[in-house]
Amino acid sequence: MTDLTTSLWIRKALQIHKSFLSFASMLSKKTKYAIKALVALGKNRENPPMQIVRLAEQEMIPRKFLEQILLDMRNAGYLYSKKGAGGGYSLNKDPKDIYLADILRITDGPIAMVPCASLKFYRKCDECHDEVTCGIRKTFIDVRDATLKVLAQTSIADVIARETDDIQIE
Amino acid sequence: MTDLTTSLWIRKALQIHKSFLSFASMLSKKTKYAIKALVALGKNRENPPMQIVRLAEQEMIPRKFLEQILLDMRNAGYLYSKKGAGGGYSLNKDPKDIYLADILRITDGPIAMVPCASLKFYRKCDECHDEVTCGIRKTFIDVRDATLKVLAQTSIADVIARETDDIQIE
DNA sequence: AATAAAGCCTACTATTTCTATAGATTTTTA
DNA sequence: TAAAAATCTATAGAAATAGTAGGCTTTATT
């Protein structure tokens, strides 16, 4: 028995793309949570450290999941942690020096859309015969460069700054 | 019982990122197959139509999977199909007029990395409180624009042309 | 020294998405 | 009428993501 919402013909009849139900090839929740956590810690710099539990509640992130994420960020050198009573997490770098590209690479891995176009996680594509002449590869190297131009230049500080941009009169 | 290759500590000891095993947030096989099929059909324009079976063999794509993909492309108006003996598939447009962005949208859906930054498949993000002031959103709209600048301007004809670029002396 | 608060670490489960296959149907040509 | 081909929907299988569990270690406080 097939679920109504995933039934092809009903979606077709209603002209619903599957992306209405799910949103593929997107940023993982892990990455979103990581960014939100870093932003929150960036705003909390006068008052460190911040406990996982507080952070989880404030940002509506499942606590145990957040634990793992923070651990990754810590192991990558972006966070400082302190155990025991009165402990918690705080930023180990200036928000200006934490770039989204780096966060993405820690949480989601490669930024490129195909392995063979990845800068930091290069791998040969399975379906590719001759990489040198692959037109797809060349295009997706361009895409990677364009994406990276944004992500490697946008820092947590920028994200925080942008949050209040709407106050400006346009 | 955990599989060796997925065991965290062994990966850690060998310093292997999980992307070595799998490659997340990337182009789906469906999309890759679609592009390859269109490129193949683009090269076969003097000799149409081409049968699914031949195309599948030539491009090393699982036949029944390819069927579905071609059907999608056909329903979207990019392919012409003919049933019965001597039938098959051929391009319904000039390769110059088939852009990668459009293919991606048919096969994978949105191009943006977050729903709230999508041009064609906009949807509110679950974890977002105030979209107007969301710094993440603004950044990923920039990413989307950068990506689209490449994908919406690169056609199947461009991909084909690029395949022989290496012949040029650099 | 004992206790409680917090992070550390690995494994596991559950859910969802992607990939692929199945099989019956329809259309066309010879 | 038989064979060749696409059409269509459903289902199965595989992989990735999301989330949970629970014991361990460190630190501060009393």
Q: What does this protein structure show overall?
A:
Two copies of one chain form a homodimer. Chain A is mainly α and 170 residues long. Chain A has one domain (29-162): Winged helix-like DNA-binding domain superfamily/Winged helix DNA-binding domain (Arc Repressor Mutant, subunit A), CATH 1.10.10.10. In chain A, 46% of the residues lie in helices and 5% in strands. Chain A contains eight helices and two strands; from the N terminus they run αααααββααα. Chain A has helices at 8-14, 18-21, 29-43, 52-59, 63-75, 100-107, 135-151, 156-162; strands at residues 79-82, 88-91. A two-stranded antiparallel sheet of chain A has the order 1-2. The N and C termini of chain A lie far apart (53 Å). The relative contact order of chain A is 0.12. The model of chain A is unreliable at 1-5 (pLDDT under 50). At the A-B interface, helix 2, helix 3, helix 7 and helix 8 of A face helix 2, helix 6 and helix 7 of B.
SS-based class of chain A: mainly alpha
Globally, the shape of chain A reads elongated
* Average pLDDT level of chain A: 87
CATH homolog superfamily of chain A: Winged helix-like DNA-binding domain superfamily/Winged helix DNA-binding domain
Low-confidence stretches of chain A: 1-5
> How many structural domains in the coordinates of chain A?
1
Q: What is the percentage of strand-forming residues of chain A? A: under 5%
Second CATH tier, the architecture of chain A:
Orthogonal Bundle
Q: How would a crystallographer describe the biggest sheet of chain A?
A: 2 strands, antiparallel
C-alpha Rg of chain A, in Å? Answer: 20 Å
Count every helix of chain A, treating DSSP H or I runs of 4 or more residues as helices: 8
Please report the total strand number of chain A as a whole number: 2
**Major beta sheet, strand line-up of chain A:** 1-2
Helix content of chain A: 40-55%
What's the oligomerization state? homodimer
Please name the two chains that share the biggest interface, counting residues whose Cβ lies under 8 Å from a Cβ on the partner chain.
A-B, 53 and 53 residues
Alpha-carbon distance between the two ends of chain A:
53 Å
CATH fold-level label of chain A: Arc Repressor Mutant, subunit A
CATH class category of chain A = Mainly Alpha
Q: How do the SSEs of chain A run, as a string of H and E?
A: HHHHHEEHHH
